[in-house]
Amino acid sequence: MPASSTFSALLRGLVAALGAILLAACGQQGPSFNATDITGARFGSDFSLTDPDGRTRTLADFRGKAVMVFFGFTQCPDICPSALIRAAEVRQMLGADGERLQVIFVSVDPERDTPEVLREYTAAFGADFLGLYTDVEETRRVADEFRIFYRKVPTGGSYTMDHTATSYVYDPAGKLRLAVGYQQDAASVAADLKTLLQSFPAH
């Protein structure tokens, strides 16, 4: 066989081999979720907030657990309680793995959501659900970091709050993985959590 033909054959073989490698790499996809997979998101990497006992809490405090974070306010008439009821149902559906899910409620209304109010509110949905807060200025900064929108809406002599209704889920390594929409049902969220936790065996 002429040298040019040999070279062409080798080149075609190399291209075919590279193509096969690339196709195999493309096929190595991560797990499929019902919620929006935001793995690698460059926001919401951490927080430093206060719990009802006055302790500063960060995501590192919950390493080893999946963490579900929801921003809201205790006088919310529907969206917030619905999100927390769903979180409680998810924990129940997870069975023994329910203890590996920490639910965190971050107040966007620190003027009214005092430590005691937060404690009583979150306990109504789950004994170890945790309410966190900070001052008005820092609340805005944290919300912006997590891409959470909120604003006061006057209602006569008082006010309510408009806010984003998304829940964020972190894996046990502390990485932001999922954005759970308000309309997603508990069963599909639980399925997502099961899939996520399978990658992090309990010790």
TrEMBL record:
Please report any disulfide bonds recorded for this protein chain, giving both cysteine positions: 76-80
Record-linked InterPro entries: SCO1/SenC, Thioredoxin-like_sf, Thioredoxin_domain
Q: Which residues form the Thioredoxin domain?
A: 24-198
Q: Which CDD domains match?
A: SCO
Which amino acids does the record list as binding Cu cation? 76, 80, 163
- State the Pfam families in the record: SCO1-SenC
Keyword Chloroplast assigned to the entry: answer is no
| Family annotation (Gene3D superfamilies) | Glutaredoxin (3.40.30.10)
Listed A to Z, the keywords are:
Copper, Disulfide bond, Metal-binding, Signal
Q: Name one GO molecular function term.
A: metal ion binding
Q: Which interval of the chain is the signal sequence?
A: 1-24
Stated family: Belongs to the SCO1/2 family.
- What's the protein called, per UniProt? SCO family protein
Originating organism: Pseudothauera lacus
